[in-house]
Amino acid sequence: MSIEYRAERRTLTLLTKNSVYQMQIGPLGYLLHLYYGARCEGDLDWLHLPRDCGFSPNPHELTEGRGFSLDTMPQEYSGSNGADFRLSSLELETGSGVVGADLHVLRWETRPGKYALDGLPASFANGDEAETLSVVLGDEASGVEVELLYGVFYERDVITRAVRIRNAGGGVVTLRKVASACLDLPFGRWDFIRFHGRHAMERQIERAPVRSGLQSTASLRGSSGHHNDPFTILCAHDATEDHGACYGLMPVYSGNHRTDVELDQGGSVRAVAGINPDRFSWRLLPGECFDVPELILAFSDEGLTGLSHRLHRFLRGNLSRAEARRRAEDRVLLNSWEACYFGVSETRMLALGRGAKELGAGLLVLDDGWFGERCDDRRALGDWTPNRGKFPEGLSGLAEKLSEDGMAFGLWIEPEMVSEDSALFRAHPDWALRVPGRSPALGRDQLVLDLGREEVTEHLYETFAALLRENDISYVKWDMNRSLSDVYSAALPPERQGEAAHRYVLGLYRLLGRLTGDFPAVLFEGCSGGGGRFDAGILAFCPQIWVSDNTDPIARLRIQQGASYGYPIAAFGAHVSASPNHQTGRATPLGTRCLVAMAGSFGFELDPAALSAEERAQLREQTAFFLRCRETIQQGDFYRLSAEDERFCAWQFVAEDGHETLLTLVLKDPEANPAPLHVCLKGLDPQARYRLECRDFFGCRNPIPEAPRTVFGGAALMHAGLTLPQLLGDYPCARLLFVKETCK
Q1: Which helix (H) or strand (E) holds 634?
Q2: d(C-alpha 252, C-alpha 275), whole Å
Q3: Are 363 and 474 in contact (CB under 8 A)?
Q4: Annotated catalytic residue within 421, 615, 696, 730
Q5: Among 30, 81, 409, 562, who pairs with 203 as Cys (CB 3.0-4.6 Å)?
Q6: Using CA atoms, how far apart are residues 526 and 209, in angstroms rounded to an integer?
Q7: In this predicted model, what pLDDT tens digit does every residue of 251-262 receive, in sequence order?
Q8: Coil, strand or helix: which one is 509?
Q9: pTM check: above 0.85
Q10: 535 is catalytic
């Protein structure tokens, strides 16, 4: 059993292989959070002693004993407008104008399997690997019931949390704030790690001590955004890659989000994560329910690497339904965008297909410019009919000819957007999000369709389902190239406009769910100007997401490393692009571009005809190497090896069964008279011996000496480490593949 109840102390305990999560039904039925951390035994209520703290009020029923205050006790799901002045988890308003929530336990139950949510993506259990705990809290004044849902995955070392709010009273209730989870850490010194950025420079890691007051990461862009990833980490101040306590908080949500962290007067840290309450409200009529997005929680006392491994395995195995990925495992793609931008045509695409095949690719993706009057980014979004001037036989003719050449066909689409200069907008101007009486802001000369309206998602479903039925398409790149502004739905009354942004996300999930469900053989890749909607909610439908529009490999080192703290490498869309790079103008060696793209899906974003014969031969070899190591890269454990050395970036993959390991190093800053390049490998069998099967260096100006030896002990590689030859030149790199040979 992974869920235990001890009646004597009224404790509820959730157990995973290496962690304990414990709650207590405390005085007056308040649900207190006792502990979340490394495995230990027994009831832990002795950790939280009553104390009288000035200006921390006590419940009216307990005024004789001033030691108990909600303002000083750790809460499992905090109320509002009561005696707890810290971050609230729930704020609701009744018809009489009363705002607040005072939550007491009404009942609880356990059941086998994993809960599901209405209209929202959530993790799933394979067989009997999970149990669910349901704890129902009640707010007596409003009649609202708050069901806290816990999914316990023992072997995965993960606990998921979600909330279902039910209006069990007789009047209308308006939700003003709804959090997915609250996590109180009463003791210790903690750092807050978040991942900020901008378009083409996403997921830059920022680590800072939790300070008094509030720290936040949030988005109001209608999506998870380039600027603040919803995934955050709370870790011990002295935690490293390999040691120390770390908590990962990952919302399974793709809309406006906010995570707040507060250090209170007593040194306790509280984190509250959920839908961003700014501009949000939701009216609940009697009997109605509202499901709050899921939050994935993971704990590791093995540092940031241990946390990453738990999350990577969980997202790969319990969130992303990867049937389509498995069908595409042996295909590397070439995307047309940086090869020709809007200048696409059947002739050009067939030439790209032949060039891609020569590089070892098996899939050609037709990007923007194939439909309507789409000759630039100012028109035609919404008119999803192939341009017959560019494609005389339509997409089916192109797909058929590519198939004859041994190439599969993929397609770029941007379903959520509409151009003002389009037949769709002229026919349905009210389908776009616009504030009445105000000229809307344009992003990339386009508006956003109101996906909260069922007639809009129905139209989009029929449009793209027809494209997929009528054409042999095995891959779809689903893009979103602007943030939501002027959020106002013509289909909602004034008192429900606060629902528009969340209804948009629900409509997106409804549309994605239908298309991915009806066309399971198609691999859908998510994209939003690159990494503008890179989150666990999208991963539930798209097992692969374009990490960034920035294809410069040196910039990608930071972008992909930041993403790796929470998201699995298998999800990273990463391509080899031309040099100098289209975004930065930086020139980098071809081998370096390849090795960075191999820390992801590995594909091409260039015109093979612009390459020399030698470059094409090298890319064929790199493609073959990636396909040979693909399972190790995408299903193995990932290690960051160079967090403390700014001269280079090094990373390592260890196969799921441990039979091989791949080390990659890119030199970012060559120095005169340099210190040795030295790394210690991780995750190996200390008793085994490892044979050096492959030793490649790219972009180096100096000759590389032969390897002094080819067989190494696992313990020696991990503890003594490995010293690489001196690398000279602009961004040279090294790749070493070791195969497990024997045991001592």
Answers
A1: helix 613-635
A2: 11
A3: yes
A4: 615
A5: 562
A6: 33
A7: 999 999 999 999
A8: helix
A9: yes
A10: yes
